[in-house]
Amino acid sequence: MTPTLAGFLQALALVAALALSHRPLGDYLAHVLSSAKHLRAERGVHRLIGVNGDFDQTWMAYLRSVLAFSAVSVLFLYAFQRLQNHLWLSLGFPAVHPATAWNTAASFVTNTNWQSYSGESTMGHLVQMAGLAVQNFLSAAVGIAVVAALIRGFRRTGTDRVGNFWVDLVRVTVRLLLPVSVVLAIVFVASGMVENLHAAAQVSTVGGGSQSITGGPVASQEVIKLLGTNGGGFYNANSAHPFENPNPFTNWLEIYLLLVISFSLPRTFGTMVGDRRQGYAIVAVMALFWVASAALLTFFEWQHTGTALHAAGAAMEGKEVRFGIASSALFASSTTLTSTGAVDSFHDSFSPLGGGVTIFDMMLGEIAPGGTGSGLYGILVLAVVAVFVAGLMVGRTPEYLGKKLGGREMKFASLYILTTPAIVLIGTGTAMTFKAERAAILNSGPHGFSEVLYAFTSAANNNGSAFAGLTATSTWWNTALGLVMLFGRLLPMVFVLGLAGSLARQQPVPVTAGTLPTHRPLFVGMLCGVVLIVVGLTYFPALALGPLAEGLHR
User: Can you say whether the dihedral through the CA atoms of 380, 168, 409, 486 is positive or negative?
Assistant: First the structure.
């Protein structure tokens, strides 16, 4: 079997698996988020944290809960790392440096999982399990909770209530993330992934040298790292490490896990608003961008200009031979289109245009399919903009799912769209201004600029992957990227919840002959156009200075 055919069959199997999961998982999530019943375990958690599970919150109260929970989580995780040397299973590691601890706390709480450290040589097992892995569950649940509030905003009428954040957080964790993680952790262990509490073992190599090999609770953390679109690896090499991703089967399963919830959430949306055709339209847009990205990235990496690449048959630098071009490109496309950031190859070694695709994927706002929850609420905000544009074309007050889109709604949508690009471009420009910060760049010219642009794009979009050539370990880089991650995560949530509250207060508008059908191919095409135009107008100058300049030069 040729590598091309193997890659095509792998992608085909992935599409089939995602299609089979779309309906049952989407419907199950709709039930979880809509049910009036609480499980016994959930009621116990509600009592523990002092929450009335039958009381819905206004959007402002929901937002305060999200912000308070995030603040407490950052403080807890920061303290956990700083006290590591006094904890059980520290493996003799010292307390984490303050700047690194701050960056890591902000990173894992925001679902970014940017890592400016090597996990196997910095974090003890207890911090990995009770600190980082716990936030992998909770940050994913927060994203789904926020999109649930937005869906209720579309669904409910004449009310100021959008749900209860604490109920949503507990339900998603208890009914979805935990059980799936337990089952699939067993599958990963059976497939050869490491799961133990061992310290580093010194072994002799074939060449007569000595090597330190670190074990740890890898499999149990690997599932939620992908299922929750988190991405932070137990090892520095992330999913390129054989203990974290042993074989082609686990590689395929990892790609499936990082996509499955986000591709199923449009079904949840359609079910909860009472029109599943709306969900089909949204998932169609997601799928079109995902297929296009994977195809382009694979094509660029198969190109082999230059003597070394011609000898290798493709751009194999930075890629695992056991995965090859097709699997590496599919993984890279999927991880940058979601907010995962896990890698089984190193994006800094991709061809210039291939690396440009990974940056552009994140610049889309990671809405194809995006992170758990964040992908769906991101594309729904863009759908609101698309409907508004269509209304302007025909001189009619825009309506989406029976709700009028007036000045208040469009202000929230506009602020959402402008926030992340502003953070990315201001951060990149600031870093390029200072000589000391430019010293962290490994490469000169357009590729060096791409490294910085990638870092801020990844942080602001809560992705977490990186062009490895940038040494972002100084206090300035740790502090700046930590702030970017928090702003990039929390500010958009403010506008999403504000939009949810505004929509929930409205009375439904009856469908008439002039209402734009938002479930047909015409709207799918319009939404794709809005996504591309918004991204193109915002980021094209920066892309022209980085990956496009490098690609055209070569």
Answer: negative
Structure tokens at 461: 């979009």
Q: Distance between CA atoms of 398 and 123, rounded to whole angstroms? A: 52
What phi and psi values does residue 58 have, to the nearest 5 degrees? -70, 170
Taking residue 204's Cβ as centre, other Cβ atoms within 10 Å add up to 9
Distances (CA, A) of 270 to 23, 160, 267, 483: 11, 22, 5, 35
DSSP classification of residue 129: I
Cis (ω within 30 of 0) for the bond into 242? Answer: no
- Using alpha carbons, list the distances in angstroms from residue 315 to 323, 353, 554: 13, 12, 14
DSSP H/E element including 162: strand 161-163
pLDDT for 554 beyond 70? no
Burial class (CB in 10 A: 0-12, 13-18, 19+), 187: middle
Above 80 in pLDDT, residue 303? Answer: no
- 8 A C-beta contact, residue 459 and residue 484: yes
Q: Which residues pair with 161 in a beta bridge?
A: 58
Write the CB contacts of 479 (distance below 8 Å, at least 6 apart in sequence): 99, 102, 103
Rounded to 5 degrees, φ, ψ at 57 are -105, 155
In this prediction, residue 7 carries a pLDDT of: 81
Instruction: Report, as an integer, the average pLDDT of 305-315.
Output: 52
Q: Which residue is associated with the tokens 């590691």?
A: 93
b vs e for 82-101, b when ≥16 Cβ sit within 10 Å of the residue's Cβ?
bebeebebbbebeebbebbb
Residue 218 near residue 243, CB atoms below 8 Å: yes
For residue 61, CA distances in Å to 46, 75, 160, 164, 548 come to 17, 21, 10, 9, 45
| Virtual torsion, Cα 481, 486, 491, 492, nearest 10 deg | 80
* Partners of 470 in the β-ladder: 441
User: Does pLDDT of 203 surpass 90?
Assistant: no
How far lies 540's CA from each of 89, 334, 365, 457, 545, in Å? 48, 22, 14, 13, 9
Q: What is the rounded average pLDDT for all residues in the chain?
A: 91
CA separation for the pair 229, 373 (Å, rounded):
10
| Cα 500 from Cα 409, distance rounded (Å) | 9
Residue pointed to by tokens 């920061």: 78
What DSSP string describes 453-508? HHHHHHHHTT-----TTB---SHHHHHHHHHHHHHHHHHHHHHHHHHHHHHHTSPP
| H-helix segments, 346-401 | 352-363, 374-394
DSSP 8-state symbol, 319: B
DSSP character string of 209-250: -EEEE---SHHHHHHHHHHTT----SSTTGGGSTTTS-SHHH
d(CA 439, CA 282): 43
